[in-house]
Amino acid sequence: xxxxxxxxxxxxxxxxLVTTVLSLIGYALVVGTFARIFPFPELxxxxxxxxxxxxxxxxxxxxxxxxxxxxxxRRDAVRKHRTAMLTAFGLILLFLVMYLLKVxxxxxxxxxVEGPVRWAYLVMLAIHILLSAIxxxxxxxxxxxxxxHTPSELRDTSHARVGRIAVVAWTLSLxxxxxxxxxxxHVYMWEPRGAALVLFAAARSPLEW
Length: 209
Known about the structure:
- The protein is built from eight helices and three strands; from the N terminus they run ααααβαααβαβ.
- By secondary structure, it is mainly α.
- It has one domain (2-208).
- The longest helix is centred in the middle third of the chain and has 33 residues, at 116-148.
- The chain crosses the membrane at residues 16-37, 49-72, 84-101, 121-144, 165-184.
- Keywords: Membrane, Transmembrane, Transmembrane helix.
- This is Putative membrane protein.
């Protein structure tokens, strides 16, 4: 218990440092997985497809939960807001585990469509990826502040301001991710692409869940 209290006190005293460290760990896990630095069990094509669908379900649930959390805080239901946002954060961590497993042990998909639809997909995918990267530190910072401060203490922090940024980036990223998921998996055809190509060929071969 004493160790937990010390960690809590240090995180409360230096939330930006905790946010930076956790964000860098998250980025490193993603980059390391795409670069094939970390070992993963090889997955069958069927498993990759199942994971793609499961990830979409998790992200859709996270999106709904975030919107519920926003509704709760507007009604000043702080406890429900906290529960909703921590649930959404937990779902995103679950998404990260499944996504890294799918990429590291399986493959990514390239959409097979040309013309304006392809460009629309590319634009939405680019915004989705950018917002996903941006949302990492702001979401983590909001969560760290929320976990280390009481509701009354949070009024003297940047939690509300950072939280609003996190919600906008997070929800738009999730929404666009779901749209591109539907386009890729249920509207148009796709072909597999090696995960190592993602960092070098994203502009020519749009990749998604």
